[in-house]
Amino acid sequence: MFFEGEVVLVSGGAGGLGAATVRRLHAAGAGVVIADLADDKASSLAEELGERAVYVRTDVLNEDSVQEALAAADELGTLRYSVIAHGGFGVREKLVNRDGTPHTLKGFTDTVALYLTGTYNVLRLAAAKIATSDPKDNGERGSIVMTSSIAGFEGQIGQSAYSAAKGGVIALTLTGARDLSAVGIRLNSIAPGTMRTPIMERIGEEGLAKFAATVPFPKRLGTVDEYANLAQHLLENPYINGEVVRIDGALRFQPK
């Protein structure tokens, strides 16, 4: 098996996209480090999976915290892979609101910190650790997948902070892949469209149907398992590098 004896770190590993990825990669033979802040969900997932699955409470914006998660990988095998799938809050503000007030600076900086700086922090630290492993026969030491969004291409009204953060992940993908080529690590990103995550399901079936109606085909929201399937493929395929892959049913966000 491709992942036998090796380890994947998944940031946001207890969330919708992350948990699906954790389950899929563990089933494929990988040891998994679930890096998250959702104690109950993450602990339950680690317990469900059992052997070679561990939860480490991880703040993606804290270097020591991420290093603790990376250190936990040593107990499971060799860390060669990471999927960066953490999420959190969302800020919806226009650059200038109807009452004439500007977008809050804190809303912007907090959003960029979580989705872009947090991604970069996990990326740089995970890559540095993976780079210490012995190369495989093909010269590759490992692979990392980041998570962007189609909002990084076509941000909607009120999404300037989120779009800037996810656009930063898109811009980081090729540059990062070029940087990491010297140490034999591939880097790719997934840009999901509207996905049926547990958070999205809170809006109810009527709301979900409205979102699904905007997707050309298949006329539904994407599933977390489809994201996980793509993440696994990008980790495994040795010739995909520096790519941002959309998974959106041909959806292109309109202004609103």
Q: What features would you describe in this structure?
A:
With 256 residues, this protein is an alpha/beta fold. It has one domain: NAD(P)-binding Rossmann-like Domain (Rossmann fold). Helix content is 42%, strand content 16%. The protein has helices at 16-27, 39-49, 63-73, 105-130, 160-180, 198-201, 204-212, 224-236, and strands at residues 6-11, 31-36, 53-57, 78-84, 142-147, 185-192, 244-247. The chain has a 7-stranded parallel beta sheet with strand order 3-2-1-4-5-6-7, with helices on both faces. Helix 4 (105-130) links the parallel strand 4 and strand 5 (142-147).
What are its keywords?
256 residues; alpha/beta; Rossmann fold; 7-stranded parallel β-sheet; 8 helices; 42% helix; globular
| Total tally of structural domains | 1
Shape descriptor:
globular
The assembly state of the depicted protein chains is: single chain
**Major pleated sheet:** 7 strands, parallel
Strand percentage? 15-25%
The helicity comes to: 40-55%
What is this structure, in a nutshell?
The protein is of the alpha/beta class and 256 residues long. Helices cover 42% and strands 16% of the residues. The protein contains eight helices and seven strands.
